[in-house]
Specification:
Helix content is 50%, strand content 18%. It contains 6 helices and 5 strands. Strands 2-1-3-5-4 form a 5-stranded parallel beta sheet, with helices on both faces. Helix 4 (91-101) links the parallel strand 4 (85-87) and strand 5 (105-109). The longest helix has 20 residues, at 134-153. The chain is globular and about 40 Å long.
């Protein structure tokens, strides 16, 4: 599994993606940018799915998704097994989603989070460790639900 962090956004998240990407690269992190590459109107499900697919297939450990609200990309990403995409508008949510949910995709809404706050949210999200304990039991329950859904689909 690669330590490269995936990053993707739609047109509404493009500017924040580019700003956050510059910050992450400056701090020595390795990224793979899955687009979009301009502010030209596009459809967020394509980018969210492509990023979530890499996480679900265990090719990558972590990803960042950005759209206007963060809601749409969260919905898409969380449809794939093994993806725990968490929409965070503040550092407390970022900390809790790592501690309690072992979140592997950080979702940001460019309409609610500026670049300064996005950097803080990301730093907390990346640095925070999963607490395990009772939270591990709950993650195992999520995995069982994913298996049941997969069995019905197959």
């Amino acid at each position: 599994m690669s330590d490269i962090i995936l990053i993707a956004a739609d047109h509404a998240g493009f500017v924040l993606k580019e700003q956050l990407k510059a910050y992450l690269l400056k701090n020595g992190l390795r990224l793979k940018d899955l687009g979009t590459y301009s502010q030209e109107r596009c459809d967020y499900p394509v980018f969210a799915y492509n990023l979530a697919k890499g996480i679900s297939r265990k090719q990558y450990r972590r990803g960042i998704l950005i759209c206007k609200s963060g809601i749409g990309t969260s919905i898409v990403a969380n449809r794939l097994p093994g993806v725990r995409a968490s929409l965070c508008y503040n550092t407390k949510a970022a900390r809790m989603t790592r501690e309690h949910n072992d979140s592997n995709v950080l979702v940001l809404g460019s309409g609610f989070v500026n670049v300064r706050l996005a950097k803080k949210i990301f730093d907390v999200w990346l640095a925070t460790k999963f607490m395990a304990g009772r939270h591990k039991r709950r993650l195992n329950q999520i995995k069982e639900i994913e298996k049941k859904i997969g069995a019905r689909a197959g």
